[in-house]
UniProtKB/TrEMBL annotation:
InterPro entries hit by this protein: P-loop_NTPase, RapZ-like, RapZ-like_N, RapZ_C
Annotated binding of GTP, by residue: 62-65
Provenance organism: Carboxydocella sporoproducens DSM 16521
Domain RapZ-like N-terminal stretches: 4-158
Cleavable signal peptide: none
SUPFAM superfamilies linked to this entry: P-loop containing nucleoside triphosphate hydrolases (SSF52540)
Protein name: UPF0042 nucleotide-binding protein
Length: 296
């Protein structure tokens, strides 16, 4: 089927689905919030009665539906049988972040029952495990501001008439703050000499020329970049061939301030310099401002 473009927005309560709704509305999608999965077949029938150009739709289906949500599997099976072109966007965040968000908004978790917010989060995470495994795109919103989440969604789902078919995000991060859950490829560059131990470089970041020179001038860095770029350029057309529309490459060092930032910037430059119009590249430094100068 190519007569409907459908995005299913789901995930953990408090992970940013309201922000996602606004993002899809800004992109011109017709959005239905909290649709019971049992009504998906009726919705598809209705959309197929619309004359003219095919619409783009987004449906929010989550645990607020209570017992109705148990029919999600049947709804997805129906979409496959009808050859509906759909994608699942799954939003999640760390437990402590979700707890804080619920406390700030004073909302009740839909699965908390008589227990705590954390009890509800853990029940919901377990119930959504299978659906998460079927998701086409998973975004961890733990460290994202609403505007940053909207930008992530724009990059992943905004239709393009021409040009890039793959959106590549090259992200730096610090292992001391955890591996990004939404990364497709993760590479550890802690094998490189650490600028933190150079007094003059410690307060700087990989965005500063002095740190860049220290990291990139190393022979092992040059070899690494050559080999890693080789791997990425091999993978890109294969991912595109398989229908992948977004790729997140996460490069990590200890604190996400020096080595990973330098190499993230450099890899993005090398990819952009190739002039390949089949993809576009964005850079994101997740942890660059956290405990600046205190990398261990």
């Amino acid at each position: 089927m190519k007569d409907i473009s459908l995005i299913i927005i789901t995930g953990l309560s408090g992970a940013g689905k309201s922000t996602a709704v606004r993002a899809f509305e800004d992109m011109g999608f017709f959005v239905v919030d909290n649709l019971p999965p049992a009504l998906v077949s009726k919705f598809v029938e209705l959309t197929r009665q619309v004359k003219g150009q095919p619409y783009r739709y987004a449906l929010v289906m989550d645990m607020r539906g209570g017992r109705f949500f148990d029919q999600m599997q049947e709804a997805l099976d129906y979409l496959q049988q009808q050859k509906v072109d759909y994608r699942i966007l799954f939003l999640e965040a760390a437990d402590e972040v979700l707890v804080r968000r619920f406390k700030e908004t004073r909302r009740r978790h839909p699965l908390a029952g008589g227990g705590t917010v954390l009890d509800g989060i853990r029940r919901e995470r377990a119930k959504l495990e299978e659906l998460r495994g079927r998701a086409h795109r998973i975004i961890d919103t733990s460290s994202l501001k609403p505007a940053e989440l909207k930008e992530e969604i724009f990059r992943a789902f905004q239709p393009e008439e021409e040009g890039a078919r793959l959106s590549i995000t090259v992200m730096s991060f610090g292992y001391k703050y955890g591996i990004p859950l939404d990364a497709d490829l993760v590479i550890d560059v802690r094998f490189l000499p650490n600028p933190f131990y150079i007094k003059e470089l410690r307060p700087l970041t990989g965005n500063d020329p002095e740190v860049q020179e220290y990291v990139v001038s190393r022979e092992e860095t040059k070899k690494f970049l050559d080999k890693f770029l080789d791997l990425i350029t091999f993978l890109i057309p294969e991912y595109i061939k398989e229908g992948k529309t977004s790729l997140t490459i996460a490069i990590g060092c200890t604190g996400g301030q020096h080595r990973s930032v330098t190499l993230t910037n450099r890899l993005a430059e090398l990819l952009a310099d190739r002039g390949d119009k089949s993809y576009r590249v964005e850079v994101r430094h997740r942890d660059i401002q956290r405990e600046k100068g205190r990398e261990i």
